[in-house]
Design brief:
Keywords: Hydrolase, Magnesium. Monomer. This is Phosphatase NudJ. Residues 7-137 form the Nudix hydrolase domain. The protein is of the alpha+beta class. The chain has a single domain, classed as Nucleoside Triphosphate Pyrophosphohydrolase, CATH 3.90.79.10. Helix content is 18%, strand content 38%. It is built from 3 helices and 7 strands; from the N terminus they run ββββαβββαα. It has helices spanning 48-60, 117-121, 131-140; strands at 9-18, 21-29, 32-36, 39-41, 64-77, 85-96, 109-116. Strands 1, 2, 3, 4, 5, 6 and 7 form a 7-stranded mixed beta sheet that branches. The longest helix has 13 residues, at 48-60.
Length: 159
């Protein structure tokens, strides 16, 4: 039997600021209700920028226009009975438009909230992961990389 190939999970997240407050989602997780930036998994055939635009819209009903990459984060979670799971998270910041009132949120999303950095800092036990605050702190510190910092090379079908 061939051993299973280990692969990290690639995720994207969006930091959207409006009047000193940040768009977050409250979502159902295996650990109960948690707060997170709009975030999700990269899907086959997408660029990272396309993924963060899609995930933000699906989770918040707000359109998102990425302006910069805040950072790339790696985290590993142990899971009983296996090797655990590793995530590579690409966090972008940008502008968010107004919500589409006709658009339903992803099923696991309970609601969207606008919270200040201090409000988020005051409730770390409610964060989905420690990356919620790490990414926000990096954003607040002015960490920005141009969108073309990550190059996407597409290869068409083999001839």
């Amino acid at each position: 039997m061939k051993p299973e190939t280990w692969l990290p999970h690639v995720t994207v997240a969006a930091i959207v600021e409006r009047d000193g407050r940040f768009l977050v989602v409250e979502e159902h997780t295996a650990d109960g209700l948690r707060l997170n930036q709009p975030a999700g998994h990269l899907e086959a055939g997408e660029t990272l920028v396309e993924a963060v635009i899609r995930e933000t819209l699906e989770e918040t009903a707000h359109p998102f226009a990425p302006e910069a990459l805040v950072g790339l984060y790696m985290t590993h979670f142990e899971r009983p009975g296996n090797e655990g799971v590793t995530y590579l998270r690409f966090t972008y910041c940008g502008a968010g438009g107004g919500p589409d009132p006709e658009r339903a949120l992803d099923p696991d999303i309970v609601r969207t909230l606008w919270m200040s950095a201090d409000e988020l800092r005051a409730c770390p036990e409610r964060h989905r992961t420690p990356l919620v605050m790490q990414c926000l702190d990096d954003y607040l510190a002015g960490r920005r990389f141009p969108l073309d910092f990550v190059h996407t090379h597409s290869v068409g079908p083999k001839q």
